[in-house]
Specification:
- The protein has helices at about 25-35, 85-90, 130-140, 175-280, 280-345, 345-355, 375-380, 385-390, 395-405, 445-450; strands at about 10-15, 20-25, 45-55, 60-70, 95, 100-105, 360-365, 370.
- The protein has about 450 residues and is α+β, with helices and mostly antiparallel strands.
- The strands form two sheets. It has a six-stranded mixed beta sheet with strand order 2-1-3-4-6-5, sandwiched between helices. A two-stranded antiparallel ribbon has the order 7-8.
- Keywords: Coiled coil.
- This is Chromosome partitioning protein ParA.
Length: about 450
């Protein structure tokens, strides 16, 4: 084969936005962008979702790497960006089939190099918003103007041609060959679609699990930060309470000192009154009245002022105690909510999958494919055999006996030597039509069991 006929792979880079693919370029242009040769002002100060794709000459995607790229305010890419896109594409795991067989897919939930995982993103696989389907359709439109290889029938080399013998020169049955070919093609198509659907569902489950773990980690971080803030606020209130108690103690000491000072002043005034009493009785009465009035006024004013201050401090102290109690209750409630969320994360994943349209299907002989409702998953896990027997409207013991007969339809009667008869018998395909001692015995032992007298 000449070099001109050899298929050539093309490397392209596509930028995604909310509206879909907003920019396409060859990998060489992308390298020039990273080297600073050109800028992209339309992506200034944004983090863009980008896909590196390997495309074959039939416009089919063979490999894809989903990564982030940051741009500064001038539209220049991050100078520290150094993700080995070609290496990741070569070592990526298997992904869904986009028309040319399963692709090699590297994304956040399927990254061959763990330390690059944080720089990758998962494609959206929701119906109507499937990023992989959008990538496939964009490549098919061939906006980059790639050279397309036309599909043509491969010529058979003369050395590989064989001549049939003369006795086989009869015309084959065309209807039979067409039917067999159609049946083979339908079976192959069904298997391919089933494998692709399973791969997409596994990738979607992995993506949802990663998203749930990120959300749970963010909630735990927010709860821890709020807990620390509440602890700091509580500590601040406790310090304020201690300062207020110290201030109250100082005020009480000041009140006691003022009372002592007033008592000393009163004693001094009493002594002066006694001295004046010896000189003039009338003047003594006037001074006594004036002294009593002033003393009572001073005492009343001082006591009222101090009582008011003490009352204000008591109200503030009660308010601080109430706030402290409320904060402790809030901390306990947040802690219980966090534990409950962590304990129920598995059930929430199942509920979220059920809301997305996923059903749980199992297969049991006799019952066929059973669709298990979300509320019956726990009961099925506890006893799958009893669940299948209930769906067949028989007891668990009868279902187990029928299953033994279904897997090996042979006579289970015992011979006089103690061995089983093991004579092949007809299989009963329905558990409800199975009768122990009759359906699992051959004609001879079935007749014997019927003629056996009842004790």
């Amino acid at each position: 084969m000449s070099m001109q006929n050899k298929p050539q792979m093309v490397e392209a880079v596509m930028f995604f936005s909310e509206r879909g693919v907003c920019k396409q370029m060859f990998f060489a242009e992308f390298e020039a962008l990273l080297d600073g040769v050109v800028n992209m002002p339309e992506f200034a100060d944004q983090q863009m979702r980008v896909v590196y794709a390997v495309i074959n000459p039939r416009l089919q995607v063979k490999a894809a790497v989903f990564f982030f790229l940051d741009f500064d305010e001038k539209g220049a890419p991050d100078s520290g960006w150094n993700i080995p896109l070609q290496h990741l594409a070569d070592r990526a795991g298997r992904g869904p089939d986009l028309g040319g067989g399963p692709i090699r897919l590297a994304c956040r939930s399927q990254c061959p190099v763990s330390w690059h995982q944080m720089h990758l993103w998962d494609p959206n696989l929701a119906p109507g918003q499937n990023d992989l389907a959008l990538l496939r359709d964009t490549v098919k439109r061939n906006s980059l103007g790639l050279l397309v290889e036309e599909d043509g029938g491969a010529a058979v080399e003369p050395a590989r041609l064989q001549m049939a013998s003369e006795d086989n020169w009869h015309a084959p049955d065309p209807s039979r060959e067409v039917a067999e070919r159609l049946a083979a093609e339908l079976e192959q198509t069904h298997r391919a679609k089933t494998a692709q659907l399973i791969k997409q569902q596994r990738l979607r489950i992995s993506s949802l699990s990663q998203q749930h773990e990120d959300e749970l980690a963010q909630f735990k971080l927010a709860t821890e930060q709020q807990h620390q803030q509440l602890q700091a606020k509580l500590q601040h209130l406790q310090q304020a309470l201690q300062q207020q108690e110290a201030r109250n103690a100082a005020l009480k000491a000041q009140l006691a000192a003022q009372a002592v000072s007033l008592q000393t002043t009163r004693e001094d005034m009493t002594e002066q009154l006694r001295t004046l009493e010896r000189h003039n009785r009338t003047q003594q009465d006037l001074l006594r009245a004036q002294f009593e009035t002033e003393t009572q006024a001073r005492i009343a004013a001082a006591v009222a002022d101090l009582k008011e201050q003490v009352a204000i401090r008591d109200v503030e102290l009660a308010y601080r105690n109430e706030q402290e109690t409320q904060l402790r209750q809030d901390i306990e409630r947040y802690r219980l909510a966090r534990d409950e969320l962590a304990a129920q994360s598995g059930d929430q994943v199942l509920e979220r999958l059920a809301r997305l349209g996923m059903v749980f299907v199992v297969y049991h002989p006799g019952a066929g494919h059973l669709t298990i409702a979300l509320q019956d998953v726990a009961r099925y896990q506890d006893n799958p055999m009893a669940y299948a027997a209930a769906k067949c409207f028989v007891s668990e013991a009868q279902y187990r006996q029928w299953l033994t007969h279904y897997q090996q339809p042979a006579c289970e009667a015992l011979l006089p030597s103690g061995e089983r008869c093991a004579m092949p018998i007809d299989r009963v395909d329905t558990p409800s039509r199975f009768t122990p001692g009759d359906s699992n015995c051959c004609a001879r032992h079935k007749a014997t069991s019927r003629l056996r007298p009842v004790s």
